[in-house]
Design a protein that fits this description.
three-stranded antiparallel beta sheet; mainly beta; 213 residues; elongated
Length: 213
């Protein structure tokens, strides 16, 4: 009886440490599947742990036909997050009033992350001179916005009541450089519905947080 029990314990331990292979006779993990996996119901991952191997990793995305595929940035027309620099050469010294990027608002979100201005010949001593006098310092407005008429993102880059001039107040044309971050909607980011808030002549107000937060 003792020997039978010993054999059973040995068999149980050997089975618990075994590796199972599907379409492979040399499994490299507890479950090694060489091929595609189809899950009709739910797939549970218990204690997956932290993933520190960022380089070389891939995303899984759902195509329009509901097929799940591996997302490869090298074979894609676009990235989930795109970076672009726009250079506006020989711009009037009033700046950019309304530039159409032609980027559709229903597919992308566009943000201006930074900007700088130089003279048309590369001068770095460009200043914003107020039309109201030297005692005024006007604020700059550099931003992207949705144009619902064209359904595209537009850009403004100017200084309130001011013109770009050289330090000696000479009028010049300027080159304006804008750094844009362009997000593909629905891949890594979820758009939250717009909210209109009336402060009722107050300086502070508590509102409900957006859905999903």
């Amino acid at each position: 009886m003792k020997s039978i029990l010993s054999i059973f314990i040995f068999f149980y331990i050997g089975t618990s440490l075994a590796q199972v292979g599907v379409n492979t006779i040399t499994p490299q993990a507890t479950l090694d599947v060489n091929g595609h996996i189809k899950v009709d119901e739910k797939l549970f991952l218990e204690a997956p742990g932290d993933f520190n191997e960022i380089r070389g990793s891939k995303l899984l995305v759902e195509k329009q036909d509901k097929e799940i595929v591996q997302y490869d940035i090298e074979n894609s027309r676009y990235g989930p997050i795109n970076y672009a620099e726009l250079k506006f050469e020989n711009t009037q010294n009033i700046g950019i009033q309304n530039y159409d990027t032609k980027i559709p608002i229903d597919q992308y979100a566009v943000t201006v992350q930074g900007f700088y201005v130089r003279g048309q010949y590369g001068e770095t001593n460009v200043v914003a001179s107020s039309d109201s006098g030297d005692q005024y310092i006007e604020g700059s407005q550099v931003y992207s916005y949705k144009d619902t008429d064209t359904e595209t993102w537009h850009i403004k880059a100017f200084v309130n009541n001011s013109k770009f001039r050289l330090w000696n107040n000479a009028n010049i044309q300027v080159n304006i450089y804008l750094n844009l971050i362009i997000y593909r909607k629905g891949l890594l980011a979820k758009e939250v519905a717009d909210q209109s808030i009336s402060l009722s002549n107050s300086t502070s107000l508590q509102i409900a947080k957006p859905a999903g937060f």
